[in-house]
């Protein structure tokens, strides 16, 4: 699988470890930066990751910052991205199974390397469940789509 990975300065070490871990599993990894621990703005790298995944240049994305929160917000600004902030494997698996997440975010200050690897393993090995989740996921990229139930509850 081709995976894009990006971080801010707070997650540069975690990014390097996860990049090598993913390569060791046989994945092709696109490291989108940064290359040093000099201060950078996480939105810049989140937007870059979102564009790469949305374009199809990578199948999945891994977004990292100190908490994982800021970069996940940046990635999710793109309508084609569904980036889930996760802290343990179950949420990573459910993000794929129920939400067809195409990116995952982790916080370097909150998640240790072993837990981060376990999250990536779950995220990358879980398939989207489809079924009842399909129409819901479609609405994530198309908020103008509403169900009859939503229209009735607003009226």
Automatic annotation (TrEMBL):
Q: Where is this region: Disordered?
A: 133-155
Which Gene3D superfamilies does this one have?
Sugar-phosphate isomerase, RpiB/LacA/LacB
Look up the EC number in the record and give it: 5.3.1.6
Leading EC class? isomerase
Q: Which GO terms describe its molecular function?
A: ribose-5-phosphate isomerase activity
Instruction: Cite the record's Polar residues compositional bias ranges.
Output: 141-155
Pfam families attached here? Answer: LacAB_rpiB
The UniProt entry, under NCBIfam families, shows: PRK05571.1 (NF004051), rpiB (TIGR01120), rpiB_lacA_lacB (TIGR00689)
Q: Give the record's family classification.
A: Belongs to the LacAB/RpiB family.
Q: How is this protein named in the record?
A: Ribose 5-phosphate isomerase B
Species: Novosphingobium kalidii
């Amino acid at each position: 699988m081709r995976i894009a990975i990006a971080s801010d300065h707070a997650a540069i070490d975690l990014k390097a470890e996860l990049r090598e871990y993913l390569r060791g599993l046989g994945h092709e990894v696109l490291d989108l930066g940064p290359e040093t621990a000099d201060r950078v703005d996480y939105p810049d790298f989140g937007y870059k990751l979102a564009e790469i995944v949305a374009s199809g240049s990578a199948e999945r994305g891994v977004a990292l910052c100190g908490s994982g929160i800021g970069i996940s917000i940046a990635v999710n600004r793109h309508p084609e991205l569904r980036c889930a902030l996760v802290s343990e494997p179950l949420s990573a698996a459910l993000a794929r199974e129920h939400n067809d997440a195409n990116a995952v975010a982790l916080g370097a200050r909150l998640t240790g390397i072993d837990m981060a690897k376990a999250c990536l393993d779950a995220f990358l090995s879980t398939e989207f469940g489809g079924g009842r989740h399909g129409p819901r996921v479609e609405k994530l990229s198309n908020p103008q789509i509403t169900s009859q139930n939503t229209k009735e509850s607003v009226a």
